[in-house]
Write a structure and sequence with these properties.
The protein is mainly beta. It has 2 domains: 113 residues, Immunoglobulin-like (Sandwich); 101 residues, no CATH class. Helix content is 6%, strand content 30%. The strands form 4 sheets. Strands 1-9-8-3-6 form a 5-stranded mixed β-sheet. Strands 11-10-12 form a 3-stranded mixed β-sheet. The longest helix is centred in the middle third of the chain and has 6 residues.
Length: 244
């Protein structure tokens, strides 16, 4: 899994007001919340401790995963953990990850406004400020190149389109629906001959996935948007118009 913290290039820095770059260290600098430092190959242990409040929260890490049961290596992998009043969880990350910035955050939009997010930074080389775990400075364990020689690469081309979504036969529908479809089905979907359904990309264990996403939104038919429901701490915003 690749790190998904967005880093704009210099030419895009002028778009710093665009929500697509809200978590970009390139645009805004590093966040004030703790930056958790590591090297690829080092094991991570993150401890969540919840006091007393009226709401549950969901902790997420984009691009990393851990076993749901910390003491059971056969339990399913997870990338999020719900936590409530007087609960505590240990997240033991032993799955491979690459160098880069990984976003950790709590899922509610009011949590984002309140600053409940930060960065896990995996360095691509030795730093004086951080000793590798159980390894010499020249023995940081890198992941193999991707993909390796002889690896199976499954390539998919996907399109994002606008379409009317019919929810039930009684007429409940969304005239401004947005869906993903295989690229070869775009014409069929746009002329109404395609039944919208969840998009599933299939692969075997060990395969690599290469996904190309095409923006097929109609520039003459702007996508309407509505304000999010009010939350305890809110701020004016406009959804991003950045291409998918």
């Amino acid at each position: 899994m690749e790190p998904l913290v967005i880093r704009a290039n210099a030419g895009e820095a002028q778009n710093h007001e665009d929500p697509a770059y809200i978590f970009s260290s390139f645009v805004h600098g590093d966040p004030a919340t703790p930056i958790l430092e590591t090297y690829p190959g080092d094991e991570l242990m993150i401890r969540l401790i919840d006091g007393a409040h009226e709401e549950q929260h969901v902790f997420n890490i984009t691009g990393m995963s851990w076993r749901k049961e910390v003491a059971d290596d056969r339990s399913p992998l997870a990338a999020s953990q719900t936590i409530g009043v007087s609960e505590a969880f240990n997240l033991n990350i032993k799955e491979p990850y690459r160098a880069g910035d990984y976003l950790y955050y709590f899922g509610g939009i009011d949590d984002a406004w309140l600053g409940l997010w930060g960065i896990i930074r995996a360095y691509d080389g030795y730093r004086e400020c951080l000793k590798p775990l159980c390894e010499g400075k020249d023995r940081i364990r890198p992941l193999p190149p991707c993909p390796g020689k002889g690896d199976v690469v499954r390539r998919y081309e996907i399109a994002a389109i606008q379409t009317r979504l019919l929810y039930k036969r009684y007429g409940d529908h969304d005239p401004d629906g947005l869906i993903f479809v295989p690229l070869e089905d775009v014409d069929l979907a746009l002329c109404g001959g395609y039944t919208p359904k969840p998009l599933i990309l299939r692969a075997n264990v060990g395969d690599w996935l290469e996904v190309i996403l095409h923006n097929v939104w109609n520039p003459d038919q702007p996508i309407p948007y509505h304000e999010y429901p009010k939350v305890p701490l809110d701020m004016p915003h406009k959804p991003s118009e950045r291409d998918p």
